[in-house]
Structure formats: C-alpha cells, structure tokens
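Reminder to self: keep the SMILES exactly as supplied, no canonicalising. Ligand is thiamine diphosphate.
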Amino acid sequence: MSMVKTKQTTKAGARKAAKAADDIPIAIRLALFRSQVEARYCEKRAYDLFLQNLVKGTSHLALGQEAVSAGVAMALEKDDYTYPTFRGHHHVLARGASMTSVLGELMGRECGCLSGKGGSMHLSSVEHGVMASCAILGASLPIAVGTAWSSQYRGTSQVTVAFFGDGTANIGAFHEALNMAAVWKLPVIFVCENNLYGEYTVTTKVTAVEHPAADRASAYGLERIIIDGNDADVVYRTMQAAVAKARAGEGPSMIECMTYRQSGHSRADPAHYRPPGELDEWKKKDPVVIYRKRLLDLGVKEATLKQIEDEAMQKVNLATEEAKASPVPPVELAFKDVWSNGGIQWRN
Amino acid sequence: MSMVKTKQTTKAGARKAAKAADDIPIAIRLALFRSQVEARYCEKRAYDLFLQNLVKGTSHLALGQEAVSAGVAMALEKDDYTYPTFRGHHHVLARGASMTSVLGELMGRECGCLSGKGGSMHLSSVEHGVMASCAILGASLPIAVGTAWSSQYRGTSQVTVAFFGDGTANIGAFHEALNMAAVWKLPVIFVCENNLYGEYTVTTKVTAVEHPAADRASAYGLERIIIDGNDADVVYRTMQAAVAKARAGEGPSMIECMTYRQSGHSRADPAHYRPPGELDEWKKKDPVVIYRKRLLDLGVKEATLKQIEDEAMQKVNLATEEAKASPVPPVELAFKDVWSNGGIQWRN
Amino acid sequence: MAELSYREAVVAAIAQEMRRDERVVFLGEDVAAAGGCFKATVGLLEEFGPKRVIDTPISEQAILGAAMGASSTGLRPIAEIMFSDFLAVCWDYIANEISKTRYMTNGQFSFPLVIRTANGAGSRFGAQHSQSLENWAMMIPGIKVVAPSCPADVKGLLAAAIRDPDPVVFFEHKSLYAMKGEVPDGEYVDELGKAKVLRDGKDITIIALAAMVPRSLLAAEILQADGISATVLDLRSLVPLDMQTIIRETVKTGRVFTVEENPRLCGWGAEISSLITEECFFDLDQPVVRITTPHIPLPATDGLEDAVIPSVDRIVAEIRRSVDFRPRI
Amino acid sequence: MAELSYREAVVAAIAQEMRRDERVVFLGEDVAAAGGCFKATVGLLEEFGPKRVIDTPISEQAILGAAMGASSTGLRPIAEIMFSDFLAVCWDYIANEISKTRYMTNGQFSFPLVIRTANGAGSRFGAQHSQSLENWAMMIPGIKVVAPSCPADVKGLLAAAIRDPDPVVFFEHKSLYAMKGEVPDGEYVDELGKAKVLRDGKDITIIALAAMVPRSLLAAEILQADGISATVLDLRSLVPLDMQTIIRETVKTGRVFTVEENPRLCGWGAEISSLITEECFFDLDQPVVRITTPHIPLPATDGLEDAVIPSVDRIVAEIRRSVDFRPRI
Ligand SMILES: Cc1ncc(C[n+]2csc(CCOP(=O)(O)OP(=O)(O)O)c2C)c(N)n1
Ligand SMILES: Cc1ncc(C[n+]2csc(CCOP(=O)(O)OP(=O)(O)O)c2C)c(N)n1
Ligand SMILES: [Mg+2]
Ligand SMILES: [Mg+2]
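Structure tokens returned for the bound complex:
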C-alpha cells in the first residue's frame, strides 16, 4: 500500500442525502438487503458443504449476524480497513470479496482468498481492505489501532473497523487497544457482535457487567453505545456517525450490536446449551426476514426482492461450482512466502 | 500452607471499637505512625546505601507513599495475603517483615528475605503473608485473584490485597483480573497507588481517563473509590470497609490512593521531568509530616512521637549493621530450588 | 485393563485425582458445562460440581494467574488452555511467573499445578491452532513438560503431573484424542521423566514424542521390511528428561533419528541431538538426524498440512537416505 | 570513524533511518521525552518530534499490535520493548501474529518492522529483567533475529533491520550499552545474516553472540598463552543464519564450542550444535561443546549472577577440559 494517501474518496451523493434527512435512500437499502442475503446464502452453502465433507478443518458461521456486516460495510469507503474475526465470512463478503474466494478457502482450494494456506479463520483480502484475520481472540484489536495510527500519521481519511465478539471483551488485548486508541484519538471503530455466547458459555455468566463492550466504554472515555444488531439500518446509521466522528479526527468509537448466532459455535456444535425457545425468539428477529418485510412495507416490489435473492442464489451456485472446480493448491505453496522475498530460507 | 483454615483470627478489640465509632483509637494511630516512620527511615537508608554502592542492581523507593502501606496493612489480619509491587519495600515492611530482611535483600546478603536470589523487585515473605512480588507490571493481579479464589474455596476468611501503580492500570492483565475477581465475587482488594507517574511519563498523558483505576471500576461492576493516599487514617478506614465487604462474601473492591513518589523512579533517576514546584507541593502533603501533626493535634505528646522515631532509627541502624555483617550467599544457592525437591536437575 | 480413548483417559485421570484429593480443582474455558471443546472433560462438572469444575471468562492470563495464586496457597489446580497456541497470550505466567517464583524467593513457594493444553497438527485448523509447542515449555527453567502418545500414558502421566509438587505443562495431542488403547484399571499413576522403548531394534534408534510416536512405529515396520531394524523410543516427558535411556539406546545402535512435529529451529530435537552428540560422540556411527516440520508456520488445508508435518513416508525416506546401512563392526 | 558507545550507536542508527525515510516511526514506553530507560534513544524526540517518536502507555500488546498494523499499511515502525523479558506479555504478537500473517495470507501482507529490546544479564536485575531470549525468537518461523556485540554492528545491523522488508527482533545487550567502539562515519548499513570472524585461530572455533563475544575474545587470549589458537566467530544474526561461515570455520578446526547466555535447554547453541553435527560430522575431531548458563532462572545478586553466566574463566576452563589437544592429523 502506498504511503501517500491524502484525498478522501467519496461514494454517491445518495448517501450524503440519506444522512441529512436521517433516512436511508432505497438504493442503499436494497444494497443492504443484498449484502445480507448474499451472506446468508453463502453461510448456508458453507454448511451444506460441511455436510458433504468438502470443507476442511473447522468453520464458524455467522448465520443471523448478517445485519452487522452489511451495516458496517455500507458506511465505509473502499479504502477503509476492516479486521474480521475468526467468524468472519460475512465481514469479508460485505467488503466485496467474492464468494468464490470465501468458499474456495473453506474448501482449501487454490481459488480461496488465501489459496488454502490460511483456512476459514484467517480470511483476508488486502484489495478489499480486509486485513489480517486473527484466530487468537482479541489480537486484532491492537493491530487495528496500528492501521488507524498509520492513517492518522499519513494524513489520510481512512477509517479502521475491528470486529470482536462479546466473549472477547474479557481478554487483555481489548483493554490495551481501547486505551491506546482513545489516548491517540485514532480513527478506529470497535464493533462488538454480542451474540450472547462465547463458544458454549453464556457470556454474562463470565462477565462482570451485562454489556461486555458498552459497559466498559466509559473506562476509555467513550460513549456507551448499544444497538439492535439485527437491524441493518440501525447498524448503518450508527456506523455513519462513528465514521464521521473518526474522519473528523474526534477519535474512536465502540458499538455493541445485539445479535444472535443461529447456528452452533462451529461445525461440530449442535448448540444444546441453548435454553428452549431462545433460538425461536431470535428467529423472529432474523435480520434478513425483518429487513425484507421493511422493504415491502416501504413499497419495494416483491419482484425486486425476489430478483436480488435469485441473483444471490446464482452467485452462490456459481461460486460453489468454481470452488469445486478449482484445484487444490500445489504442494510448493507450503514452501513459500514466509519472507517478503517469497521464500522460507533461514540460512545460506 | 495448610489446606484447612476455617476460623478467622482477630486482632485487639480496639479496632472493632474504632470502626463502630468511626474513629480510630490512639493505639492504632500510633501504630500507623510507627509503620510510616519505619518505612520512611528504611527507604532513606536504602538510598544512602545506594550512594555507598552497597545496594546491588536497581531499587525503587516508595518515599512519600508510606501512608498506603501502613493503612492497608493495619486493616489486615496476620493470615491475609498481600501482593507487593516491584516498588514494594514499604508493602513488605508494613506486614511485619524485618528491616534486616529488606535491606539485606537490597544488598544481596544471605540475611535478605530471598538470600539475594530475588533482588529488590521480588521481596516476598511467606510467613508474613507477603506473596510473590512480580516485576512484570500487572502480573500479580491475576495471581492475587488465585489466592482469593483459594481462600473462598477453602472456606477461610482470608482476604488478598494486590497493589499496583497508576501506569500499570493500562496493561491487559489488569482487565482480566478485575473481571474474574468480580464474576467470582472473590475476597480480593486491588489497591492502586496513583503517584501520577509511570517511570518518567505522566500517566494521564497515556491514559484515556483521569483516574486509571477508579474510572474503570464500573467496567467490572465495582464502586468508584478515590481517596487521599497520603492520609493513613483515610486509607485505613477505606480498607476496613473493603475488608469487611470481602470477608462478608460480597466480592472485590478497587481503591485508588492518590499519592506521590518523592524520589526518582529508580536509583538512577533524578526526576527532571517533574514540573517545577510539584515536588514541593506534595512535600507539604507528606504523609509522615501530616500524620505527625495530626497526632500532636490529637494530644499525643511530642515525646511519644520522638520515642517512636528514635526506635525506628535504632531499628534501621541495627538492620543496616546486620545486613552489612551478613555474608554474601554461598555460590551453591544459585544451584538450588528450581524444584520442590530443592534441586535444579532436569535429567537423570 | 479397559479400553479407553485418549480423551477418555484425560477424564479418567482428572476424575481419579479429584476423588482422592479435594485440593484438586479444574478451570478453563468451556471445560465444565460443555465438557471441553475437545470433549475431553465430559462428566467432571456433573461428578464434582461447579465449585471444583469451573468455566472461566476468555482470559488466559487470569486463568494461569489464578492457578498460580491458588497453587501457592493450598490448592492443586488444573488449568486448561484450550489450544497450546494460546499459551502465547499468557506466556508471561509460564515463562516468568510460575516457573521462576520458587527460585526467586529462595524456595518460599511451591506451585503444584498442571496446565493441560491441546497441541499439534492434523486437524486442518491453520497456523494459530495447530502448533506443537513442547519446545517452548522445555526452554523455560522451572517447568516440567509432558506429552503422552497413548491413552495409558495420558492417564498415568496426567495423574502423576497432578500429584507432582511442581508446575507441569501437559501437552495433549489433538490428533490422538480419538485413539483407543488399553489403560490399567483402578488407581493408576505413572512416573514423570521415564522414556519408554516401544519397539526394540538393533540398527537404528528413532526418538519421538506424542503424535510422532505412532508414525515412527509405522515407519519402523516399513523399514523392517528393508532389513533395517529400528528401536522406537517414546520420550513421554522432556523435563525431566530420561537421558539414561536415551544414552543406552543411542549406544546400542549408534544411529539416532529424532522425529519432531515443531518447526525446525530450536526444537526439542536440537537439544536431544546436541546432548547425544556431546555425550555419545564416539559411539555414533553417523550424525544424529532430525526429522522435523520445516521452519514455517503451518498451512491449513489438508494437502499442504500433510506435506509439511513428518509423515510415515517422510520418516522412512529420510532414514533410508541417511542410513549408510552396513552391519556395525 | 567516530568512537561511539553501543547506546549512542542505537540513536545513530535510528536517526539515520528516520532522516532518510519518513515512514520510519518509533514507539515505546518512556522512549521519547525521557530518551529511554537505558538512555539509548536520547535526542530523537527533539529531532523528529512527537508525531514520530512516541511515548506509549504501559501496554506491550498494544505496542506490538500497533507496530504490526502500521507496518502493513505503509509505515516502518520501530517498537521498543523495554526489557526482553517483557516479550512474554506480548508474545502472541511475535509468535502468532507478526510472524505468521504473511504466510497465512499467502503473501498478501508484509510487516517491515523492528522490535528493539534490552536483553541479557550483568546488571543484577534478577530473574525477570536479565534474560537472554534470542532463542525464543529464533524458534518462531517468520521472525529475523539479530544481536550485535559492538557499536559498529549496532549501527549497521539496526539500520539494516529497519530497511528489511520483514519483521526483525533486535536484541541489544544491556551490559554492552556503555561499550565504546569505532563506527563508520556517514550513512552506514550492514547486511543481516553474515557472521564475522573476529579472531582467526587454527585449533578451535568458538561461536558466540552478543555479550558472549567479548568474553570469548578474552578467553581466546588466555587460551593462546596455553598454545591453543582459537577462532572466534560472532554470529551477529541467528535468522538469517550464516551457515556457510559456520561450516567453513568448523571444518577448519574440527573443534567447536558455542558460548551462549541463555539457559541450557533449546538454546541457539543446541540448534547450531545439531546443525554442525548433521552437516560436518566427519570433519569433527570432538563433539561440539555448549557452554551455557545452567537451566535455571537467574539469581539477582552479583556473586550468584556471575557464578552462572558463562564467564571468561569458565569459557577457558570448559575449553581446556574438553580439548584433547593434539595437533590434527
Ligand atoms: C485467546 C483465545 N482464547 C480462546 C479461543 C477459543 N475460542 C474461539 S472462539 C471462542 C469464543 C468467542 O466468543 P465471542 O468473542 O463471543 O465470539 P463468537 O464466537 O460469539 O463470535 C473461544 C473461546 C481463542 N481462539 N483465542
Ligand atoms: C510489563 C512491564 N512493562 C514495563 C515495565 C517497566 N516498568 C517498570 S516500572 C514502570 C512504571 C510503572 O508505573 P506505575 O504502575 O505507575 O508504578 P510506579 O513506578 O509509579 O510505582 C515501567 C514501565 C515492567 N516492569 N513490566
Ligand atoms: Mg459471542
Ligand atoms: Mg505510578
């Protein structure tokens, strides 16, 4: 990436208008819908591919959390940075990475965004501003501080977003990152996807406060922000404000998005630890379902939505075929790219 | 230490009375004065011994912070646990460890509490409940959580105190320890000695909030407590309440004590970074001086105070002589006590 | 003898020790209600209750700190770090606190605790969930290091680790959790620091650990067909290290191979190789050869992962290539 | 040539690189206003201002995380970790993040950053402020490891590390900060991965690093008086490793000694010893002998610290004891 980056690129005027009127133009809303539907279909396909034993290793679905990734990405410019979590398929797709690159990576194929070298927990795509995905919980928060510091230093208007889970808010790196970001007034936004669980454990049972992120915002001089993470409009609006604040040099924000993962923690998890009825309750608040209904209420035609869904399904079908057709990476790939010279040599 | 520990030992009735009347009996006050004077004299002597090149390695004085150690220790029973910091001479002395064992350790002599193996940053004395002293900032906070957990599990009424500095409140281990202690409702008290600086850096310049500890208490569901750390009575009273809460099974507390280190960070530091006048202002609030004046105001005779001071001076003189007379540890000591069998063998 | 899986042997050892000693407590992430992310601690919560089997926050430093503080005041904690890779986020507790405090305090404290952790590759989990890190722990004075290769050793060595008065890092190999094997009935406790000859051969000596043990045994069978008779020595514990057995088996064949899963540099194989060379130089017919993963992070996908971890084929090939196979004189 | 101290050479290298490249930034605890706790960065804040020379909170994970994130987006950060012992509290960044992300992402990112840290014993700071941890870093694939023994190497190698496109951990030895030496004038950049023969002898080869280099040179002088002519090889960098020079100097004398400050197990000496054995077995007249600190935490007081770190006397004695000194045939 280049050092010199001085001008802020901007998206269509539509979005600016949206903000002024505190309402969201239909074009943006359709894009938010599309983003959620695509993530949803892709996650479901990933699950099918598990069952067919085509996905290697583990994999963590974000079914039910698609409003967060959609709302966040929509508020960003192309050259902003995001740090996904290990549960990050939706984070990556929402920034524009192809389904083929995601499904291909899960399947360990050459067409995967990491050509199979990283695996599902490390999806990254530098060309889409999708940065290092750490599978060590919390590790990416200080790294995100670093990219935000870099943008501030280089005088760009780039914003950095770091996603993290509710359970992750109890790890030391969280604390260090939040403090440093606040002291340096960095353009970084910490987005907590509070889906109530860390693996099989209810987060409130192991956390001293009810809201693991928001109830700690004041410890870093930040505002306490808790939003409906299943409503893409809410996420988008909240993010717009945080992004504007960051670009204005007014420092970091932390946003806690209340959501729910409808699948188990990972491929092996049947999620028996859920209290009866909980999943059903949350399915009523399914982000894709409520968003679809809202669009219909706003007068969008069923056919328009249907078309978006069909296109998403075509996309996921195509990606599946492409990934299946893609070869496994050549063995030589294992012996490459430890160093910037492309090699792995540690001796002469 | 033994596993079975069920009864709570208690100190003289005087203290109970003190609490009821919300005033402190003169006997306790004299003991608080003695503790501060002894720490003061010992620290000054440590400094003289530097200048004579008799202290090995580094050393960190707590000149000016003696009210904290005195007030904390006075609120504890003999079988409670304390975790000192690397700046911990006063923490150790206040629990009853001998000056000889402290000065001896600074001088690297056999009579030192660690026989010279640990050095000034690791002073510990298991017989006085003075536990592992870590020189990695913040490391002792989770360890203190562990001893408090152990007391809770064993059903004793022991309380654990962990000291830490203002600068240390920005490290990850702080966050993890506070959260775990709160979730498990442990009998542990985190005592922050806020002396405004971390080494040569003003802590507020690198901290997102004004009070690095207290402004974060709510992040763990704890009360925000900031006190005058130069007033031993205030420290003592606040600690009494926290100890009572801990013994009642009502969980942890965090207390931020505002104080000032009158010396440099370590032996080599002339403390040029202080703004002009700051030291003088704080010297006016010198804990020993104000406490002495208070006792006089309360009618204690000058001669009584003088006698305490004389005794402290004798003690420090004697300890100096004992430490000087103590041999350096035999070289064999270096080859002992990695393992519980006393040895260092890693192979047969 | 009952047949248990490697993961069942973990439960069996912990349960055995918790029954006999109320000081034994167990904490970690998702270890209690869920029975562990590898299902290696199923049933412990039910038998011993939430006071002794505890789900923690995602706070590895606090987990090890708590274990340390508790162990110095009368408890015997077992702490789980879910994947050994996560030792990196709490490394200070292993490298600086638990390991050094006894020595620094001139023996005032003991830290009888066990850190259990899932180690090793083979699950296609990628570079941050697949490492073999026994060498990290071996490198730290004051830490004992155990890595069993079969269910019986899991039970016997884990029980021994729990009873040990000093801190032990206990590496369980992820790819072995499903392995089944005979485990002695009743109370069973092994001894730390004893290597085991699992196969007695006369031409070469293969020294291995954990998942590399079954692979070395398979390699030995294949080599046998070529007329190369291999001893396979399972180290089982790196600290304490059973040098007597290593020396005996080295002298016997004069040709030693170490098979290790960690990346090349500063692995336990380097240490063993240099020890053997220093102490048995004139008994060696050829240099000690280390068969290791190359010095790279681990790739995730199956084909690449399999290509870098020492496989049976690679062990066989490297041994064949370097054994100048003539009868000893 | 100007005479600089080792600490002045640190400042000189950083200043040289900050002048030529505005992407170079420097962060750490007390590094700016105070000029560093070892006074090795005095004057940088004054010359380059608070935007480029930054005092951080006491948050080692955030320091390395920030350096990592910045380095992947156009900056070239130098991060100071005050004492190498504190690498334990941010070890995840070295072991799992900075080192592995390039590989895991199939080369999408580079992390051109330097982690400077004060390493080693001799100051009576005790077990948590005195360790020599080059082997910790050597063990991690994806990290370069440099440890200079004199002011000229500090300047040249630190400049090279800053220009290197990959992450480098740069170990400065605390006990050498006051050492003075000639340093080339003007812009001076050395090359990583080249060992240096500092003394050419014909009987034995001593391989050393950092503070063990001057001690080995003194030992060589004493041995000379006994008629033992020693080569002293300063490795300077462990990764990349200059095996060509190591092999050449091994073959020349057939008798190799490594002198390392870290505790015994899995030190860099074990790696070098096993490499030499594997590659030069039939050129060796005796086993490679490792002279190390015993496998213990470090004691604080002077007498004990001096008794455990390899001293000139101990180097001499161990070499004398093990050299079966006859002319080579
Ligand atoms: C440092 C660290 N500890 C533990 C784990 C294992 N682990 C993976 S996901 C997970 C739960 C994370 O919970 P949360 O942050 O809420 O994210 P979610 O899974 O709900 O998306 C745990 C404990 C890990 N990857 N890293
Ligand atoms: C993890 C870690 N980082 C840095 C240091 C170096 N260090 C020693 S004392 C100190 C300042 C501590 O400040 P504070 O917590 O306020 O305690 P004080 O010195 O004021 O008593 C620093 C940075 C350390 N010992 N451990
Ligand atoms: Mg969650
Ligand atoms: Mg302070």
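Points to follow up:
The pocket of thiamine diphosphate (ligand 1) is lined by residues A 87, 135-137, 165-168, 171, 195, 197-199, 203, 265; C 29, 58, 60, 82, 86, 89 (CB under 6 Å).
The CA atoms of residues 153 and 243 of chain B lie 18 Å apart.
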